[in-house]
What we know:
By secondary structure, the protein is of the alpha/beta class.
Amino acid sequence: MASIIKVSGPAADGPNGWGPTQGEAFTRLLNANSPLSPDEKESLIVETLATLGDCVEPAAEPAWNTGLVIGYVQSGKTLSFTSLAALARDNGYRIVILLAGTTNNLVEQSYDRIKKDLDIDGTREWKLLSTQQNGFQSAELDRVNMELSKWRRGSSRARTILIVTMKQHQHLENLAKLLAQIDVSDTPTLIIDDEGDQAGMNTRAKHAEESTTYARIMALRALFPQHSYVLYTATPQAPLLISRIDTLSPDFGRVLTPGSQYVGGRDFFVDGADRYVELIPTSEVPDRFDPPVEPPATLLAALRDFIVGVAIGLLEEEDRNGRNRSMMIHPAVPKDEHLMFARWVRQAKEQWLSILQDENHPGHGELIELFGATAEGLLETYATPFSFNDIRPLLFEALEATAIVELNTREKNRIPSVDWRGEYSWILVGGIGLDRGFTVEGLTVSYMPRSTGVGNADNIQQRARFFGYKRGYLGLCRIYLTAENIDAFTDYVRHEESVRNSIRSHLEEGKPLKDWRRTYFLDQALKPTRSSVVILEMYQSKGKGGWIAPAHPHEDSEIVAENRETAESILSDFELAEYSEAGWNEKQVIPAFSDSILLADLLPYISRMRYKWPDDNLEHSSILLMLTSLVSDEPDIQCSFYAFSGPWSGVLAMRTLNDDQPAKIKNLFQGSNARTNYPGARALISQEAVTFQLHRYDLQTADKKRTLKDVPVLAVHIPDPLIQRVWVER
């Protein structure tokens, strides 16, 4: 029997009132994953127990729910859902269905991985079936029925039925028709949707219709009165922006913790942008309608980066340890571009091999010099005892042993699989075949001259096959991108962190995911996901700096009174001094001022301000999100604060409301005065820091029949360099 790796006791009860326990299937999987550190195993145990604890209880009355598990690109999501499957078996789930991707290579990759992780060939705990290549037919139903009968009898030899299917409408329809022939009314079932934001979302929701694949998923779910449907993805925008009443809208969620060796967006595009990211100039992006004859200089530079890295791997005997080195070339979707890039790579390989083996070749010295410069650049970021003198003799072998493969459907309408164990070094050229979900083993160099397309942030992020567990060889990694893609990935890092941090904080407070108010950063050049699935209405803050002030801060006397108390707290808790400049006189309202207040100290007071009108609330929420992000990036950042008319100065200025419905304040800021050199309140700002102005006004209605006393108005000025685009759910 396998040794036991456990946390103390069962998982804490989830919202469904039960706590799963770790059994032999999950323990066996943990013991088989020796590369995981003890901390990583502990994290995997805790997160898997918690996720299954949110699923329906197998022994309870029929019920169903939907969950969302959020990881990072290539961060261990597959291990998480194979662990969830193992734990589901340990706790009495009788059927596990894996929707494994939309292309044959993804399904085959998931099939092989789950077969390995669950040790299906080494145990008789599972009955593994697949819809690929006519693998699951009516003949298998007798075996399924037999296993379900064992479960009903309480047999200790009952196997869990594991079905792997492509997430494609014909596969799903055939599977549902087969399963409809057997009785699953008392069968606890777990359905795992890998890349859950793709293909299965209802792209016809805005038309009150169901798209085909979505309808097939609904039909499959309808067969099981007792089941949980868990979506796994690194890009959760689509599941979070669909209607909350949609059955694919998650009831519960989990944000996975990547291991210490994981390398993600921040490592490449924030901390290491000047070390690992290389620019592909616009002039070197091939024009599809006027393709170049010669390969781009940056492509050849990327090839040299890769070959030097392979030579270093040979020196370090990485090839003898069953590991890989690979390069990804991701030009665009059209296959003719794949052919062009693959041809250039093969030509470069043949030419360089010819030059390297002939020291008398006229190009030999120049090529060695180029490889030497490449090695010098890599050795600045990668620690190794070897020098270029050691690397040089292995360049020929590194180049000769490198396999070059096009990953597309050019032959037999199937994307070929990669035999990673067959070769150490690979160069893969493709489009969709190298997109979401596909694991590129040992990826060190990526070359991506393709455009951002329509600018869907989730699609752009899913192309980032260069993320993953590669801390040990990060210094060998180089990513070649266009300026457009560099900007998109850099912005996505902030977007990704804001979404995850917000969801994680919400869940840690014990709140259901359905109640999470969708808020995140996203550049105006990008959209969160395809518009066809987005149902929730989102407010977008303006994408440039300047003054932001509530339009209707005077509505609702109770809220005004609370805001007045907040204003008084600010004035009493922070040290302010009178501020004026030469020439000002009593006609100017002399403010109290400080430019040394920590934004982190002021932020709790700002967050207490409330407003009745939805647009004011949305704008205020976006400001808070931006300010929180600034403090997170720079905890000691300071701000400027001006307190204008109010009880502290003995002056309470008057303003008039216009006759709009609802009414707005006319002339919020006092104007300039050339005679006294007063620039106007609007001009009293810091060019580098956030500026706050607290105004206190008596407001007279447009008909002058009513005066609202002492209404605080908080205006915020954010300089252009600090502004961030924010989306907030209405």
